[in-house]
Amino acid sequence: MVTRNFGFSLSRVRLHASWLAAPSASHDTDGFGLYDIEIVDGRIGSIVPAAADVRRAENDMAGRIVSPCFTDCHTHLDKGHIWPRRPNPDGTFMGALESVGEDRVAHWSAGDVEARMEFGLRCAYAHGTRAVRTHLDSISPQDAISWPVFEAMRERWAGRIELQGACLLGIEGVRDADWFATLASRVAAAGGMLGAVAYMVPDLDALLDRIFAAAIEHGLDLDFHADETGDVDARALRHIADAAARHRFDGQILVGHCCSLARQPDAEVLATLDAVAAQNISVVSLPMCNLYLQDRRTDGTTPRWRGVTLLHEMAARGINVAVASDNTRDPFYAYGDLDMLEVYRMATRICHFDHPVGDWPKTVFANPAAAMGLDAAHGRIAVGEPADLILYEGRSWTELLSRPEANRMVIRNGALIDRTIPAYDELDHLME
Ligand SMILES: O=c1cc[nH]c(=O)[nH]1
C-alpha cells in the first residue's frame, strides 16, 4: 500500500452500512457498499462512493473490507494465560472457579498480573482492538495488588488501547459492608466501574441495593456478571433491572452472560427483557466462553444447548447488545487470544448473526463502545475522526469469516502498526 506523510487514499474498499453515520453509496443485501476513503494527517478526510473509473484509483483495494477498530467490553486480563500452570480439571464452571481461586492465592503478585495483562493487551492491539474493559478479581487482598497494576497499565497503553476496569467479586462478598465500602472507594479513586457476580442468594435484593447505593454515592457505572448457569431458576438479571428502577439509576449498566434466560419460559423471559429495556441496560454475551462452560457434562454425554443468551429477542426490544472475548487461556476458557474477529466469527455461527446480517456487526464495534460510555468515534468510520481502521483480505462476509485473516492490516491514526503477537514462551517463566 502506498502511504505518504500528509495523506493517502484507500480506493474501492467495502464498508458495512452499520459502520457509517450516513451511508452514501448503494449497499448490497449483505450491507456492503464500495467507497473511496481519504486519510489526511491521521484522520479520515473523506468517505465517498467509489469512483466508477477504476483506472484512476490509487491504492485500489479491489473491494477488500475495511472496518473500524474493535471494542472488547468484557475481558479478564488478570486471569489471562494461566492455563499451563492451572488448567480446568473438568471444564466445568465450578472447576474454573476453584482453579482460579487457588492460582490467585498462590501466584498473583503484581509482577505476575502485570506480565499477563501486558501480554493480553499486546494481543488485543495486534488484532485491531482499540478499547478494552477488564474485570479485576477484587476479593481481599487481591484488590490492593491488581488495581494499582491496572492503573499503571491504563497509563502505559493510553493512546493505543483505552482501558477500563471493573471490580469482580461474588455478590455475597458485599455482605461485609465496611470492606465493600473500602472497595467502592478504591474503584472510584481508580476511575473504575463497580461490579459483582450476581446469583440467586436470599438477600440478593439487599446486596444489589448496597451496590447501587455505592455506585450513586461515587458516581460509578455498573458492570455485572449475571446468571452464568443453565439453572432455570436463576433470575438475577430481572433483580438487577428492578434494582435499577428502585434506585432511578441513571449511570451505565452492562450485564454479562445471562445464560439461564435461554432456558426459561417465553412469557417470563419477555417480561424480564421489557424490564431490562426500560432501564437502558446493555447486555454482553460471551459466546466462546459460555459454549465451553455451559452444559458441560462429566458423564460422557453431549451438551444440548449453546450457553448463550437471547440476543435476537433483546435486539428486537432495542436493548444494546454486544459480544466480547471474556476469558483467554485460563480455567474459564482454555482458548482465545483477544481477537475480536474470532469472537465475531464464532458469534455468527453460535448465535446466527446472519440471514440477515443486518446490524449484528455493531456487536463488536459501536454497541460495546456505547456500553462502555465511549465517544461516538469508537466503532464507527466517520470524517474527521482518527483513521483507526482494519483492512482485511476478505471482500464479503463468507470470505471474511471463513479464514483467521492473519494478514489483516491495522491502521492507527493513519499509520500501519506492527502486528506481531507475543510468543507464548514469553510467559514460560511464570508457569513453572
Ligand atoms: O472470570 C470469570 C468469572 C466469572 N465468569 C466468567 O466467565 N469468567
Automatic annotation (TrEMBL):
**Documented EC number(s):** 3.5.4.1
| GO function terms (MF aspect) | cytosine deaminase activity; isoguanine deaminase activity; metal ion binding
Keywords assigned by UniProt?
Hydrolase, Metal-binding
Primary enzyme class: hydrolase
- List the Pfam families: Amidohydro_3
Q: Name one GO biological process term.
A: cytosine catabolic process
Q: What is this protein called?
A: Cytosine deaminase
Source organism of this protein record = Oceaniradius stylonematis
